[in-house]
Design brief:
Layout lengths: L1 E4 L4 H8 L4 E3 L6 E5 L3 H10 L10 E2 L3 H4 L7 H10 L4 E6 L16 E5 L4 H8 L5 E2 L14 H7 L7 E4 L10 E4 L6 E4 L5 H8 L4 E2 L14 E2 L9 E5 L9 E4 L6 H16 L5 E4 L8 H9 L3
Parallel strand pairs: 1-8, 2-8, 4-6, 5-9, 10-11, 12-15, 13-14, 13-15
Antiparallel strand pairs: 2-3, 3-7, 4-7, 5-6, 9-10
Helix pairs in contact: 2-8
Amino acid sequence: MEFVNSECLDRVVFVLNNGGLVAFPTETVYGLGGNAYDDKVVAKIFECKSRPQFNPISVCYRDLKQAESDVEINDLAILFAEYFLPGAVTLILKRKISSKISWLCSAGKETIGIRVPNNDVALNLLKRLDFPLAAPSANRSADLSTTSPKEVSKSLQNIDDLLIIDGGECPLGIESTIVDLSENNVKILRQGAVSIEEISDRCKITPTLCETNVVKHYCTQKPIIMNCKKITKNDALLAFGKPIPYSRHCLNLSPSRDLTEAAQNLFAMLRQLDSTDAERICVMDIPNRGIGIAINDRLKRSI
């Protein structure tokens, strides 16, 4: 673990360009950032946070124009950008077909939560990268969100090679407000640093409060059968390690039984198998340890 001066970002950019993770300040809390286009990197974020399930995580951009390559920018997004970006809001927008964002970031859903942080260090970093940053809060899942470099180092001491940009204390110290604009109306999925009253006053819109909808995941059309030892000719197989034989439709999360590799492939492979003519998706046994706990948790949600 190493602290880096906020004015010297060359090392940080090098680490991110080579698949590493960094902790960086925003106006709300510190984020744990990595290349949002790289499934392996995003899977590593989940693993390092010991995240118990694949909750969606926000993606940080330098501005709304950059985000346009990955999400549909509707009129409400333009309105919110005028009043609140850069700022402490996360906007949920529809994913573009051409988007390169890892499906892990949105838990397999057709939407992506985007942020443009109102923090000079974060924005200077984002301007030097050719990709946006997947960036949940920089803490282990059981811990409180972190608002200083010292808190980050204490919470994420399990990441030996983590670079922490020392940007001082976060001025707001509370998470962003999550606003779903994907259906051309305004739903507050999580109250945060920007109040509902402020949104109403500035945008002349009355949002709907729907906090229970924060955690959403991609749900398959086909039933999922876990811990399969054998399959029928009408089944698709999601393998792990050596596959069960005789499947017409088979994808392997990790032939080498690497749980991180399995996590990075999970949503993309579920989608591919869900599009076949198979009747069910049969999943081989996946060890319930480390990030395997999150994989099994996600699969159980479709049973």
